[in-house]
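Researcher: Please translate sequence to structure tokens.
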Amino acid sequence: MDGCKACSKCLQFKSFDEFYATKDTRDKFTNHCRACMRARNAEWNKTNRDRKNERNRKFRKLNPSSHRESVRQWKEKNPSLDSLHKAARRFGRLKACPDWVKTEPLASQILSHYQHAQWLTETMGESFQVDHIIPLKSDFVCGLHVPWNLIVLTAEDNRAKSNSWWPGQLDCQNGRGQSHDWWKELQ
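Model: Translation complete:
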């Protein structure tokens, strides 16, 4: 077959564009197709996670500018994932993101809020943010970083709301706890 090659792993004939380029073979293409190479690499990464992490650590240490540039490019290409990762770090410190939320389908539901905020920002020309309906940190309540506690708001509305209002709030919970006489009596 012209313009085709047999993969030595899966033994299927595939077009040359389904193989990686290499200088090591006569025809300048790898012996395994891209799908087989990806499967092999994924299996190696899974069984050699510590070796891979150590190799990556050494590379980052020896090539800090290259690493920073690749991180910058990834963040530029994936703004909603970058926002999600930053939020997960912040909320992890607050213990507001339970482990069971990090599994599918909940993780993808959270990501969709950040993607929606990014899309609105790009299309509307105004900054949109993902906010928590019930605040994660307040004098009266502590919400969780879960899909049903997220809402997309303009940055201006988010700042105005702060963490001092939530649905079902009682009159005695207005403002900050420290400003109430009964709060001072508890101290």
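Researcher: Any highlights?
Model: The chain has a mean pLDDT of 82.
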